[in-house]
Amino acid sequence: MVIALLPVSAAVRCVIAQDVTARSSLVTVTASPETVTVGQPFFVRIRVRAPKAATIRFPALPDSGDAVEPIDPRIIDQADDAVAVDRTAVYRVAAWDIGTRTARFASVGVTVGGVEQLFSLRVPPVEVRSVLPSDTASRKPKGARAPLAAPSGLWRFWLLLGVLLAGIAWYLWRRPKNVPRPTPTPDAFSAAQAAFNSLDVMALHECGEPGRHVIAHVDVMRAYVARRFPAAPESCTATEFTTAVAPLNLPVTSERLRALLRLDESLRFAGVTVAPDDAAFFAREARSVVQGIQAEHEARLRAEDRGPQRPKRR
Question: What is the CATH number of domain 12-129?
Answer without folding.
Answer: 2.60.40.10
